[in-house]
Amino acid sequence: MIEIKSLTKTFDGFKALDNLNMHVRKGSIYGLVGVNGSGKTTLIKHLTGVYRPDSGEVLVDGQPVYDNVEIHERMSYIADDLYFFSMYNLKGFAAYYRKLYPNWDQERYAELVKQFGLSETQKLSKFSKGMQKQAAFILAMSSRPDVLVLDEPIDGLDPLIRRMVIRDIVEEVAEREMTVLVSSHNLKDMEGLCDCIGIISKGSMLLERDLDDLKSDVHKIQAVFPEGTAAPVEGMNVLFSEQKGSVEMFIIRGNGEEIENRFRAAGPVVFDRLPMTLEEIFIYETGGDRDEFREILF
Amino acid sequence: MNSGKSYSKNALISVPLIVENLKRFWLGSVLAFIGYVIMCCVPVLMTEEEYVSQVMETIRIPATIWAAGVAIVAALLIYRYLHQQSSAAIVHAMPLSRKQLFHSNFLSGMILCLAPVVLTGIILMIIRAVGGPMNFVEFDMVKGFVQTDMFSYGQILLFTGGLLMVNITVYAVAVLAAVLTGTSLTQAGVNVVLLGVFSAVILILIGLGSLFLFGFTPPESLTSLALYLSPVSGLLVDPSWKALGGYLIASVVLYMAAYCLYQRRKLERATDTLAFDFSKPIVKYLLTFCGMAGLGFLFNLLAPENLQMPMLYLGCILGALITYVAVEMLIQKRFKIKGFVRGFGLFAIAAVVLFAGFHADIMGYEKNVPDADQLAGVEKGVIDYSYDGAWSEDGFIRDEATLKEVAALHRDIAADREELKDISENGYTRSVSLNYELKNGKHMRRTYIVPQSWLMGNEHFRAMVESRAYKESLYPVLAWKDDEVVVDRIILSPQGISEGEFGKVSAVLSEKEELRSLTEAIRADLEQVKLEDMPDFGGSKPTLLSLEYQVKKPMKISKEMDQLYFERYGVHYDEDCRYYYIDITDGFKKTLELLKDRGLYESLVIGPEDVDRMEVGLYERSPEEDVDEVDYAEPPKPLKTMTLTDPEQFRKVLEKAAGTCWADRYYEVRVYPVFGSVNEEDGGLYLYFEEENVPDFIRTGVR
């Protein structure tokens, strides 16, 4: 669906994006994670056709995005730094969007307005930052995009609204196979939302992974063995191990069932396979001691 | 739910965007309209018919400035989205191509600017339709009577068209400025730069030419170009359909340039001072050049005469430094600017080359004097623009012999230029204006300020002034044809005194035969009079009497026209005349003879017998003192004085003294009459001598 090939962008001699590659599957929710200044917003502005690449390609369905009205009609973008015409209210903006976006869904708009409980007649400039984000979300979702690009969408939203937003996105993805790219500077925000994660640092994509693959591949084992019995980890891909008193903890990559069977066969006094958070997976997957990871994880 | 069909991917404009812009900014348009109504419609409604034309001409200035302001504000508002990162991103992420965004925004701004002007034009048309034509009769010496509708539909259309074109051109400039810049503040600045800087550069070059090159007179094409380079001044001085067409073409070019740049503009340059790197040196150096010249000219103007050139250079250095640093700070958005030495060094080298070029006259401007055989003509009024063009449709002297003298005079001025340049040492000066029409169709202009004494000593000046062709340009009586004009009367007045002083009174001649014979005598005298007999040109002879011609151009006129003429000028047509004056010296022998024969001479000219005494004073004025500036509160005190009482001395003084004096050291003779009294303050007759022609009995007699 979205493909970025060897994208490079330089601002006054500073390389903001350096030969960056990215691939987003149709109907997936892609989490773009990176610290402030890593190049997330620059990448998003290329993806939304705002910036022209110095080199490389930004494609949606195989078509370049830059100055492509057809792609823009199928794409909605909620920027981190919102902008509305001064003196406009939600209703006025919706009327404008209705004329611009061919897939505009007035019923969906009415539903979302009701759901978020925003005033249609109050000036958008009088809204709080969180309310403005909601207004932008309503407008974006009502235009029924095939691609939704969200730059730091969670900032300024309270937990209840955040859940509503996530639920709506997930529903749209499930119903219409909408493709979503969502950026954040914190991996925690991506928990439970994304099915694919890309980590960007200093303008380059450090890694890009499916969360399902990651979660099924890395396991956290906690066990206590009788004195004199060693944990059966020989030959296993142990990413991390730690012992606190008699309790040993292992992060192991491999088949979960096989790992469990081998541990149980060694006769542990206590054995637990613990669920892993996204942060933990990334910490152990990537070594966890690199600065760029530390900042997005904590 | 929508059909999902794409709205307008290939369209040139986006109607929804235009509608949205109109919805957003309509209030500005209404305010502009109110301004136009107050400025244009209200004054017309409040003005009497005959002054409507003048009022339309007067309101054109504020209305033009208002129209330019409206266009600049419109572009600032509409293209503001380019100057903020957030708005630039959101607007360009919408399903609108850059092409659509640019054209739609441009069109929206045009509608917002033009609608109020069109409405104003319609209101003026309605006023015209309801009020009917405002007829007005004017008299033109060449065309005769001309009836003009002072408030015609054509005039309203041209007026409205002028405002529309100011709107269009300034808006195109303002949009180009918006695209070139990264902030609204610099957009406004660059706007002013684009509207004025090119004119300013030309005016600066003209100014430098005037300062450095003797006789420099900018070609009309250059001064016109300076005016036309700014649409505001261009359309103010020339509100013609041709000019409107020219600006329309310029607007299209600007529009296309702005569009091309918009397509190439990087949105990440929002909030930068200038959005394109190529524009930085252009803006920087143009402004530095203007700043340099501005402060240089100011210092030059304020400096005492002997320090004018050093102060010019000092002002230029300071002006260039201050402007360069200020502009660089703005562009680089920091106080500590980078690349100062290289950037300013380049400018300094260019400036030094320019000034040295002017100083050394590398183009050979001062030495460039046309040969007589290259000349097709020279514009009349060479000396102090003294020429009345009403009697000739050709404003040029084309006589070959006279042209030879003009060219020779020009050559002499150019040869003596180093001596003539220093005006401070030159005393009383005259302006010599040479506007040549060359045989190759080109024009060449020079204007020199030349000392009177130098001119009087130049044989070619004398030959030029004494030529028949030159005299015709000075004296209409030689130029007009007798079957085209009617001499109504000739009034002869004593010179230099009030009516009745010295017992002298004016004589009015109106008999046909008297007028014919006097005109014949005058013509015969004018053809042979010498430079000395022409006081306006520094002739040394005293003016004996003044002659006033009252003439008119005959033309049949209806009673109705005559009534209109009377209403306009306060006189009936057949009573209206034009007036010409000729100073009569003793060189006008035939004229004086005729007057003596008719017994008029004695009643007009002061003789020794009319004089009671003469008070003589020797005066000196400093070279800096302006000849025309007379301090009446504190008149100058004479260095020496004497009183004359001898009738023979009276005769010599009356014969030799001049009515005016240009020298710095001079003798003033105040003549008191035998009969009647004179006002002690300023009555009587004043005559003058210079050291060269003062009689010995005065030179040696003053104490």
Structure description:
The complex is a heterodimer of chains A (298) and B (703). With 298 residues, chain A is of the alpha/beta class. Chain A is built from ten helices and 14 strands. Chain A has helices at residues 40-47, 69-73, 90-100, 106-116, 129-142, 159-176, 211-217, 256-265, 278-286, 291-297, and strands at 2-11, 14-24, 29-33, 55-60, 63-64, 75-78, 147-151, 179-184, 196-201, 204-210, 218-224, 237-244, 247-253, 270-274. In chain A, the strands form three sheets. Chain A has a six-stranded mixed beta sheet with strand order 6-7-8-3-9-10, with helices on both faces. Chain A has a four-stranded antiparallel beta sheet with strand order 2-1-4-5, covered by helices on one side. Chain A has a four-stranded antiparallel beta sheet with strand order 12-13-11-14, with helices on both faces. Chain B has 703 residues and is an alpha+beta fold. Chain B contains 24 helices and 14 strands. Chain B has helices at residues 15-45, 52-78, 85-93, 98-131, 153-180, 184-212, 220-228, 231-237, 241-264, 279-302, 308-332, 340-360, 400-415, 417-421, 452-456, 459-465, 468-474, 476-479, 512-528, 559-569, 589-597, 601-604, 647-656, 696-699; strands spanning 135-140, 144-149, 375-379, 396-397, 429-438, 443-451, 486-494, 507-509, 545-552, 578-584, 611-620, 640-644, 665-673, 685-690. Chain B has a four-stranded antiparallel beta sheet with strand order 4-3-5-6. In chain B, strands 8-7-9-10 form a four-stranded antiparallel beta sheet. The longest helix of chain B is centred in the N-terminal third of the chain and has 34 residues, at 98-131. The chains are: A alpha/beta (298), B alpha+beta (703). Chain A binds chain B through residues 11, 45, 48-52, 67-70, 72-73, 75, 77, 79, 81-83, 85-88, 92, 96, 98-107, and chain B through 1-9, 14-16, 19-20, 23-24, 81, 84-98, 100, 266-268.
